[in-house]
User: What shape does this take?
Amino acid sequence: MSAALAHATSQLHDSDSAELDAQLLLAHVLGKSRTWLYTWSDYALTDREQLQFQALCAQRAQGHPVAYLIGKREFWKFELQVSPEVLIPRPETELLVELALQLVATTDAKVADLGTGSGAIALALAHERPRWQVVATDLYLQALALAEINVRQLKLTNLTLLAGNWCEPLRYSDYNLIASNPPYIDKDDPHMAQGDLRFEPHTALVAANNGLADIQMIAQQAWDKLLPGGYLLLEHGWQQGLAVRNTLGELGYTRVQTCQDYAGRDRVTLGCKVETAR
Ligand SMILES: C[S@@+](CC[C@H](N)C(=O)[O-])C[C@H]1O[C@@H](n2cnc3c(N)ncnc32)[C@H](O)[C@@H]1O
Assistant: This one.
C-alpha cells in the first residue's frame, strides 16, 4: 500500500496537497480512516481496490476536487456530505461561525443562514446552540436535499430548511442574527478557471456587479427581518471589505466592522440594526 500511495502522490504533482489527496482517496476506496493507512501500511491492495484507486487518482489529476470524488468534507466538528450540486465548505467560513457564536448572547435566539448549500453554517450553529432556532434557506432544491441529508445525519432538531430567494422564505421579523456566505465572485475573475472553482456550481459562486449584487440584496432584505439589536454577518472576498462596509453603512447598519481570516485577509463583515436607525 505504501508503494501505491507514493506512486499516486507523484502522479498528483499539480495539487498543493498531493500526499493528503492520495491518502483521502485510498482511505475512501478501502472504507477506512487515514490513521488506518498509517497503522496497516503493509496491507496489500486487491486488484479491484488498486483499479478503483487508480481511477480516482486519474480524475484528481484532471482537477476534480477530492471532496466531490469521495462525497464528503470536514467542516467545524463534522464530516459533511457534499456533491457537485453544492459549494465545498471552506475552512475560512468557520470564522463566520465563530463570530456568530460570539455575537449572540441570547440563549433562545432565532438565527438564519441564507444560501446554506451543504448546510455547513446552519449545522454548526444548530449543533453549538441546541436552544437556538436555526432557519437555513437556499434557492436550489438540489442543495437543500443535500443539506437535509446532513441535518438527519447529525440528528439536529433545531434546524429548519426553507426554499427561496435570500430572506423571502423568512416569515417573521424576529431574527437575532442573519448570516450568509453568498456568491461573491465576478464572472470574469480569472480564479473561476482555476482549482476547485472550475467544478463548483456557478450559482454558488458568481454574482453580478463585481460580485457584490447578492451581498447588497441580502443586506437590504435582512434589515426588515432582524430584531432591533440584531446582527447581519456576511462572508465576502478579501478585496470586498470596504465595499461591503459601505453598503451596510448606507443602509443604516451600525457597529459595522470587517474581520480577518487566519491569513490576515478581510473575510467577514458585520453590522447591527439599531432601534432608531432608518
Ligand atoms: C457560496 S455558496 C455557500 C454555501 C454554504 N453556505 C457554505 O458556506 O459552504 C452560496 C449559496 O447560495 C445559494 N444561492 C445562490 N443564489 C441564491 C438566492 N438568490 N437565494 C438563496 N440562495 C442562493 C447557492 O445555491 C449556494 O448554496
